Amino acid sequence: MRRNFFAVMGLTCSFFFLQACDSGDEAKSVPLQPVRAQILTQVKLSNDVRYSANIEANSQVNVAFKITGYVTTLMQVKTADGTTRAIQSGDSVAKNAVLATVDSKDVRDSLTQANSQVAAAQANLNKGKQDYDRATALFKSGSMTAPDYDSAKQEYENAAAQMDNAKAQQKIAQNNVKDFKLAAPLDGVVLQRNVDVGTLVSPQTVGFVIADTSIVKAVFGVPDTVVQALKIGDAQSFVTQSYPDKVFKGTISEISPSADANSRVFDVKINVANTENLLKVGMIASLSLPKSNDVHTGALIPLSAIVRAKGNPAGYAVFVLKTGGQDTVAELKTVELGDVHGNKIVVLGGLDPSARVVVSGATFLSDGQQVAVIP
User: Fold this and answer.
1) Whole-number mean pLDDT of the chain?
2) I need a labelling partner for 290 at 20 to 30 A (CA). Which of 71, 92, 235, 273 fits?
3) If you ran DSSP here, which 8-state letter would residue 69 be given?
4) CA–CA distance, 347 with 329 (Å, rounded to integer)
5) Helix (H, G, I), strand (E, B) or coil at 361
């Protein structure tokens, strides 16, 4: 009996010893989650309200054809490798540059007919002039009656009127031929090209859309509580998503005198010199207008520190570090957030000013998890 008892005790001790060894090895095999943390940054904040603006051209025109015909040529542009291609969106054009040409047999036939009518009217006018001069001489000598003189004078005046009408028709036909060439009405950039060689166009067909982007406008809407504080000529700056680190500066050039019927906001336009051609039509800009002159101190944390609150999918939280002995754990804290400032956000409540907030690795943590803080 004693021999069996000691045998069982030996096996039991061996089992617990091996289990303890396995537990120790397993604990050693799980590395701590590395994180970076920083103490809240206290900064001075103003009660600014952010607005979104659309970048528009200073002026934009639809260049339309005046006659019916087929497009025969398009303006050619040299490329970087020395070859040429048809003009397209994004190309710059000078005023009066020929963008496209069309040809119309009907218009050419009209010009030929008008030239013929002018020649016939000229011959009729010459004959009428000769008859009128002869009738005048005979009437003065008493060899022609007054009715015959009046008839010759009427024929001459009719011939002169027909000549004027024929020349007018000829001028119209000549202008129609000149309209074969579609020219740019201003210096600008091609926003759209709607035709190609072989396209059948008619009057009022828009072939190109050209915009003057040497100066652009940032257009945004404000409510009536804000529009009263704005004045034409006020300096205003904004940034764009394409160039987040570059601040564009301009002046307010236009304030709508009436609100939009649907949105009930007033359109405000900012003129900005676009000498570097960085701003493109259709870009989205962001700007701030002061809500009040009050300036207060607030805490900022990086956006990367924000996670969803536990048990509240609509809430937000952050992990703060708690140190006990040699262990450092991440504790989830629900916070109240304010406005976004660049890549940081204002914390309105929920944290102590001295809290160390996890700013890198927060998405991989769970509440109460032990972590390893790295520089």
Assistant:
1) 86
2) 273
3) E
4) 22
5) coil
3-state SS class at 241: coil
115-148 confidence digits (pLDDT tens): 999 999 999 999 999 999 999 999 888 888 999 9
* pLDDT tens column, 57-83: 999 999 999 888 899 999 999 988 889
Stated pTM of the model: 0.55
How far is it, in rounded angstroms, from Cα 43 to Cα 205? Answer: 58
Contacts of 194 (CB under 8 A, 6+ apart): 205, 206, 207, 208, 209
- In CATH terms, the fold of domain 105-178 is Helix Hairpins (1.10.287)
DSSP at 32: P
Tokens of residue 166, six digits: 């024929």
Architecture of domain 70-102+180-203: Beta Barrel (2.40)
Residue 57 has, within 13 A of its CA and on its CB side, a CA count of 16
What is the three-class DSSP state of 174? helix
Alpha-carbon distances of 34 from 70, 183, 330, rounded to whole Å:
70, 66, 11
Are the C-beta atoms of 135 and 121 separated by less than 8 Å?
no
Model confidence over 157-184: pLDDT tens digits? 999 999 999 999 888 888 777 788 899 9
CATH 1.10.287.470 residue window(s) in the chain: 105-178
By C-alpha distance, which of 324, 344, 281 is closest to 45?
A: 344
pLDDT tens for residues 350-366? 888 888 999 999 999 99
From the number of C-beta atoms within 10 Å of its C-beta (0-12, 13-18, 19+), residue 186 rates as middle
C-beta separation of 128 from 158 below 8 A: yes
Residue showing tokens 């009040």: 292
What are the structure tokens assigned to 266, written together?
């007033």
Burial of 206 (C-beta count, 10 Å sphere; 0-12/13-18/19+): middle
Tokens, residue 375: 């520089």
